[in-house]
Amino acid sequence: MDKLNNSLVPQLNKTILFKDLYHLSFYLLAFTLPFSIQLNSFFIILLFVLSFYKRELYKNLKGINQRLFILLTSFYLIQVVGLLYSENIQSGLFHLEVKLGFLAFPLIFLNAPVKHAYIRNMQLVFVTSVLLSCLFTSLGIFYVNKMQGFEFNSTNQWYYSYTNLGNILRFHPIYFSLYVSFSILILFYYFKNFSSFYKTISIVIFLFLTMFLLQLSARMQVFALTLIFLGVIFYWFLKRKKILLALASTTMFFLGLIFFINQFPILKERLLGTFKLGGNEITDKWNMDARLIKWKCGAEIIRNNFALGVGTGDAQIELQKCYVSINSEEHIINKYNAHNQYIQTFIANGIVGFLILIGILIAGLFISYKFKSFLFFSFLFLFIFACFTESTLSVQKGVVFFSFYSSVFAFSFYNLKE
Q1: Nearest-10 Cα torsion for 141, 147, 149, 155
Q2: Which of 336, 341, 338 is nearest to 387 (CA)?
């Protein structure tokens, strides 16, 4: 018996070591999301390798897990198929590399699902990382502008907003806003579980992240986050059958938001420009005309390539041809993508790719509803809105963020109990 116990000890220690390394890699992957793409990619690879230590892929690949796995990985496989009829193979291979998360993360979390306690810790690690990135960016932008002779005041907030703010970490403001918005929701969700001391700290962080989000001036993320909180407030009072209080509270929240937006000139100008209000050179810069050109070109390409699309590597080529045909110099020079993920996917991969993407989003919403997951639903809500004005799955910051969290949430519900 002693010999048997002694032989089991090294094996047990090895298992514990691999589990610890797996969870550490899980946390570090989340922590590096806002920072270096190369470092983040290293932890994705490490997590992928460690996940196969458990070797539970075939055991878990059944029922709803099988359907989820097929749905998520199909989005990557349709990119591979699209490469076969692409003219620009180099661009196609780049897109395959960027979208690897749709293949890697379902394999990782189906093979080695993560317990909910670790997911909670990972989310708080992610919030910490986003907070540090915001602090670093804030200090960096003040330093850079100070060196260039720009003092912070209400008339020159442009130097401290939008792309200028995101450029400190080479982080596009749309994706930065997506990360910040989700961090705000994570803090809000776990607030009730914190001690008094951590509740005070979380309130300070919540307010800082909210102000940073407004300074980033990403309209769609502000709008989506506003709708989520309006919905939460209204539902909370409605559940208690206080309809008048529900209406009053949501109205007060909305009016308070308008007041706050008024304190952030760049966001205010971008919002006014969206609806062609304001009537000045600055607000006119932010109207929807430029995006409508991209969407009209996208619609034209889709009509001519409805079934299969133009191929994984050729979407930009076809958009450029359209921009040339309508003589839009700004679009030609800047090589704009469709600025809408639904249109972008339809252009590249046709109706099949579009339906797979919609299927992934609908399946996620169904899972979040079935398991009453506020965070998963909110995450999807933010992402769905972001996809209306950005090609969010054309860059690694968007692909990793979406495929990572979608896989973590979806497979954890079906493999584990709370």
Answers
A1: 0
A2: 341
